Amino acid sequence: MRIRMDKRAELISRGREAYPVGVPVTRSIQSVREQYGDLEAGDETGDVVGVVGRVVFVRNTGKLCFASLQAGDGTRLQAMISLAKAGQENLDDWKALVDLGDHVFVHGEVVSSRRGELSVMVEDWSMASKSLRPLPTLHKDLNEETRVRQRYLDLMVRKEAQETVLNRAKIMQTVRQVLVDQGYIEIESPILQLVHGGATARPFQTHLNAFDQDMTLRIATELYLKRAVVGGIDRVFEIGRIFRNEGVDSTHSPEFTTLEAYQAYGDQFTMAELIQNIIMACADALGVHQIETDRGTIDLNAEWTWLGVYPGLSEAVGREITPETTAEDLRGIADQHDVSVDPSWDAEKLVIELFGEIVEPTLINPTFVCDYPPSAQPLARPHRSKPDVIEAWDLIIGGMERGTAFSELIDPVIQRERLTEQSRLAAGGDDEAMELDEDFLRALEHAAPPMGGLGLGIDRLIMLFTGLGIRETILFPLMKPE
Known about the structure:
- The chain is α+β, with helices and mostly antiparallel strands.
- The chain has 2 domains: 2-129, CATH 2.40.50.140; 156-304 and 365-473, Bira Bifunctional Protein, Domain 2 (BirA Bifunctional Protein, domain 2).
- The protein is 34% helix and 26% strand.
- The chain has helices spanning 2-13, 29-36, 83-86, 88-97, 144-149, 151-157, 159-181, 222-230, 268-286, 309-317, 327-336, 347-359, 412-427, 438-444, 458-466, 470-473, and strands at residues 44-61, 64-70, 76-82, 103-112, 118-129, 185-186, 192-193, 205-208, 213-217, 235-243, 255-264, 290-293, 296-299, 305-308, 367-370, 392-397, 400-407, 451-457.
């Protein structure tokens, strides 16, 4: 860095700028390569261009220097700086002042070198931005920690990192387009909230000085989107950041992106069709329908099956489990299958945990896990024909939950009872329980239409198609301070 700082000072002393406001670019590296990629060795075009790129390779030899200039997307073009074309001063300054990592502007004719490399024969050059730090060495400097912590380096030298960003953008665009094409309206709901709700999760706490009011960051977008449906926006969605003050691992991040969508006069089956349309559209956009995992091959073209929680658990443990099965019996099953459980959990919570530990990891192809006990989702309505279960599903693909949906609870009386019970749990020390949201209940008391609701983890959708952990799919994930 000291040597590079000296070169920066030398640039300025020689009357050159180290960080100009701009350079006279006339063509992109990509467009030059597209137009002249088929030149024969030694050909000249007569086309004089001004291009800029990051120097990723240099070879300085006597009267002729070579450099590879790289565009942001990784496309490269060779620059040749010769005494005959550039002159002594340009050649000497190039050798003395240019390092790997610098952004450099070159002006000259597009030619093909004697070895057939597409090049610019430089007549003049200038520094676009001097790099004070050296480029990382791909195999030595870029361990996973560095890649995630200094993502700009990862993007700079690793094409796979760029592809992940492009695939994420393509998936986000596809999800949004499917919803817009089906008549959904995109809205934005508050991130700062007085009452946290819409999910069972521990919120981040903050304080609003203007009102001298404690606030939380949202843990879901659900309750405000439902308010919009009450107001008459019959199909509504939001793609946005969610914040949960919980653990960090390969599938969980304290901030992540979700899609939530609500449809008046829809139900859990309407939303199942919607999520299948979204995921298959993403598969088409990326050209990926079969995905290899360490648990087996996911075939998105296979039948998307439905599996009830109680029948699925019964088959896995070899005995019938029903909503009447006692907590004591379920704890015995947990012991037999080495599933650790909390002694305070009731039968419903035990069923949910046992299914998640024993059955869920075995579900590779898309499976709608349905008919949950009521405590699993306090905002879902009772099943229309089955006792003691709710109309809700989790979509499991590759042994991992990717999305969830309900036939939404719209009865304000039952909803008040559910949220009151949640607030009692919160008062008893449950950090993940929801709070009683009087304004949301007031909205429901104005009559919400029957509706289906969908939640889809965008990061987990990207993990599905890329096979990466959540830290790799989020461009700038939250990291512990160095």
